[in-house]
Automatic annotation (TrEMBL):
Protein-lysine N-methyltransferase that methylates both histones and non-histone proteins, including p53/TP53 and RB1. Specifically trimethylates histone H3 'Lys-4' (H3K4me3) in vivo. The activity requires interaction with HSP90alpha. Shows even higher methyltransferase activity on p53/TP53. Monomethylates 'Lys-370' of p53/TP53, leading to decreased DNA-binding activity and subsequent transcriptional regulation activity of p53/TP53. Monomethylates RB1 at 'Lys-860'. This is [histone H3]-lysine(4) N-trimethyltransferase. It comes from Nothobranchius furzeri (Turquoise killifish). The keyword Transferase applies. GO terms for molecular function: histone H3K4 trimethyltransferase activity; zinc ion binding.
Length: 435
């Protein structure tokens, strides 16, 4: 197996963290550390018709699978390339019709089972870490997670048992779902819209830091790992597993809940950004610590409630939820507080969906500067807001502001995605068209 793309790194035992990845040479900011093809992947149902099922290319003139009429492809080559994985869904979709509705995780696990049956050798995505080496953390899962696992197993049996011979036993499936939940990745586009789910074993080898020195982006269905800080020989290579907007306590809770470890990185130890992230309003009588903690609890609850409400509330109802929560939190929190920013971001997304461009622009303008302070350098979250704002400005005929915002996005994207990425070329074209 070729070592191309992994050169300059090595697997090692990271003190207190288990297996990890470290550099054996210097990497400059923006340099590709390595690329990793997906072990297996699945396009999200919501993007069918807009992206090729096989290569994830975004196109308008894709053609449908002749059997299921659901999967779309660039050409015959893409259709043939996807057939070993798609055929199992194709038959099931034809069989169940409108009642075919397994979760994305279930679809991904079905493909992993199929892949494992036809692949006996180490794959190009397992140059340093084998899929079977993934941690499952079954012993640390609470009752709720175990119950969710069982629901996924039942769904897999329901939708695939007729089409996959001899599914693994419940214990093996329990471990497999847990491995995917701990080690899976979501593939996103340049505006951080969800495109699909995938497994990248070599990428999963990297440990987490809230002050990472690399970033993971996607080119089609391959993951690319690029340096966002100078990395010297002997240094461990750290990725971030979570959204880094939130204060230390919140980040640690999220990591413990999803990945079962207490983060002890430099950022968590120093809490250097917490004061800015938790800024309160300048009031004649400053809020008491208990009031702040109570409002944080409210914010976390409303974030979870909003996440669930997306599945059954109308856009106008969701926007009202955002506005009411912003009004309540705004009595104590400053506009730059991360919980205020979270709800502004959700409101911006709803406004974009409703095509209320002016309101979306207004929220974006409030978000962008605090985002630039709270997030690390070369953050995709910051780039995506500049990108959305730039495109909004141009659509509203605010040419100067639009070009300025797109250039800000481009300066981040050229480091995070690489100068030769098609997303970068697309933004450059948008800028050039305004001249």
């Amino acid at each position: 197996m070729s070592n191309e793309g992994i050169e300059g790194t090595e697997r090692f035992l990271s003190p207190g963290r288990g297996q990890g990845l470290r550099a054996v040479r210097h990497f400059a900011v923006g340099e590709l550390v390595f690329s990793c093809p997906a072990y297996t992947y699945v396009l999200t149902v919501n993007e069918r018709g807009a992206h090729c099922e096989h290569c994830f290319t975004r196109k308008e003139d894709l053609f449908k699978c002749g059997k299921c009429k659901q999967a779309h492809y660039c050409n015959v080559d893409c259709q043939r390339g996807d057939w070993p994985m798609h055929k199992l869904e194709c038959v099931a979709m034809c069989s169940y019709g409108e009642n075919w509705c397994p979760s994305e995780t279930v679809r991904l696990v079905a493909r992993i089972i199929t892949k494992q049956r036809v692949t006996t050798e180490r794959t190009p995505s397992e140059r340093l870490l084998l899929f079977k080496e993934f941690e499952s953390h079954l012993d640390k899962m609470d009752d709720e997670k175990q119950e969710m696992n069982q629901v996924d197993i039942l769904s897999l049996h329901h939708f695939y048992s007729k089409h996959i011979n001899d599914l693994p036993g419940d214990q093996a499936l329990t471990e497999l779902f847990a491995q995917v939940n701990c080690n899976g990745f979501t593939i996103e586009d340049e505006e951080l819209s969800h495109l699909g789910s995938a497994v990248f074993p070599d990428v999963a080898l990297m440990n987490h830091s809230c002050s990472p020195n690399v970033i993971v982006t996607y080119k089609g269905t391959a993951a690319e790992v690029r340096a966002v800080k100078e990395i010297d020989p002997g240094e461990e290579i750290f990725n971030s597993y979570i959204d880094l907007l939130y204060p230390t306590e919140d980040r640690r809770e999220r990591l413990l809940d999803s990945y079962f470890f207490l983060c002890e990185c430099t950022e968590c130890s120093t809490k250097s950004k917490d004061n800015a992230k938790m800024e309160t309003k300048k009031l004649s009588s400053p809020p008491e610590p208990k009031e702040i903690q109570s409002m944080v609890s409210y914010a976390k609850n409303v974030i979870e409630e909003f996440r669930r409400a997306k599945h059954y509330k109308t856009p106008s109802e969701l926007l009202e939820m955002c506005e009411l929560s912003l009004e309540k939190m705004g009595a104590i929190f400053a506009d730059t507080n991360v919980y205020m920013l979270h709800m502004m971001y959700q409101a911006m997304g709803v406004c974009l969906y409703m095509q209320d461009w002016d309101s979306a622009m207004s929220y974006g303008e409030k978000i962008i500067q605090p985002y630039s302070v709270h997030y690390p350098a070369y953050s995709l979250n910051v780039a995506s807001i500049y990108l959305k704002l730039g495109r909004l400005y141009l659509g509203l005929e605010k040419k100067t502001q639009g070009v300025k915002a797109l250039k800000k996005a481009l300066s981040i994207m050229e480091v995070a995605h690489g100068k030769d990425h098609h997303y970068v070329a697309e933004v450059k074209r948008e800028i050039t068209e305004q001249k």
